[in-house]
Amino acid sequence: MSSDLHASFLPRFPSHTGAGAGDGLYREVTGFAAGAPGWAHTLAEHGTGGGLLVLAAVLAVACWRVRRSGPRVLARALLGPVAVAVAYGLSETVKLVVRQERPCRAVADAAPALAPCPAPGDWSFPSNHATLAAASAVAVVLVWRAAGWLVLPLAALTAFSRVFLGVHYPHDVAAGALLGAAVVPLVAGAAARPTAVLVERARVRLGRTEPVP
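User: That's the sequence. What structure does it adopt?
Assistant: C-alpha cells below.
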C-alpha cells in the first residue's frame, strides 16, 4: 500500500478554526518577529537546529560523567537517549493522526514566516523540535541536575524559535514540550530497574565483581 493511499485512511483534522486564540497568538508572535532586528532573525534561524545539537552534546557529556556511577544512575543515563527517541516517535505518530496544516499556509493576514514553510504533508502538531528539546533537557536533568540552568532555558528558546520563525502555532510547541517532558521520566522510571540489573551483570562479566552502590 502506498504512503498516499495509507494517508487517505487517516483522519484529517481542520487546519485551524478561524480567528481562534492560537491564530491570534501566532499573528502576534510573527508580527513581533517581523519587527525584530536582523540579528534576532539570524539567531532564531540558526538556533532552532543549533539548540538541538547543543542539547544532544550536553546529554552526551552528562552520560559520560556518570559512566562510573552506580547501576541505577548509569541506567538512567543510558535510558535518556532511548526515551528521547521514543518521544520523537510518538510526536511523529501524533502528527500523522492529527494532520494539522502549518500556520504559515493556514493563517491569513499573518506576517510572512522568516523560514521557508515546510512542504505540504509535513504536519504542524506537535512540534518535533519542541519535543526533542524538552525530552533532551529532561534527560540531562535526570542525571546531571546542575546542568538544568543551561538546558531548560535552551529547550524553551529552541521551542519558541519555531513560532518566532513562523512554522508552528504556539500550541504546537507547547504540546511538543509537554510530550517530551512527560515521556522521558515515564520511560526512565519504567525501565530503570531492569536496565540497572543488566548494567550490573555487564560489569560483572567485564571483571568488575565488587558491588557498586
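Helices lie at 3-8, 21-35, 38-65, 71-98, 103-106, 128-143, 148-164, 170-205.
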